[in-house]
Design goal:
It is globular and about 55 Å long. By secondary structure, it is an all-beta fold.
Amino acid sequence: MPSEPPFIHASAYADPPLQIGAGSKIWHFCHLMSDCEIGENCTLGQNVFVASGVLVGNNVKIQNNVSLYAGCVIEDDVFLGPSAVFTNVKNPRAEIDRKADYASIRVRRGATIGANATIVCGVMVGRYAFVAAGAVVTHDVPDYALMLGVPARQTGWMSRHGAHLKPESPGAWRCPLSGYRYEETPSGLRCLDLPEEQPLPVR
């Protein structure tokens, strides 16, 4: 069965050359600059801006009013909530050109960035981490970490299914929605029952 071609709304601008994967949908008033890359089966809501050089993986959901600037890498299965903010310079001044100082942001596979959250440039958000609405992330986030507040602090762990994990025993957790088991590692949690690279089973 042939793949569905990407859909670009008539009000959106997509500056060639760029790459948009099969099945992706680009909605009202978006602007995609040249030399950006959007993967397959992505959804870009109203008024999304994607700068040159930005990489967006497969099955990414970007809600309304999100801007991704040069240096952003968004891996597969990421959710970016409405009006989430990604910065690209740590000490901007209008009268000083700091284009050479742009710092990158990487959001790892499966992570969720809540509505109105801010991700300060130079950080990495770990796999399946969950950044709550309105949080301000100023440092790297471990895999599966739940981050709340201004500045954001880790307050717990979230499962791949988006459930707040409760400890079963020291260093061990189980998801109440799926039953999957998790263990703590130096980089965050690790799911014992499903590799992070494997899609969730369809239910």
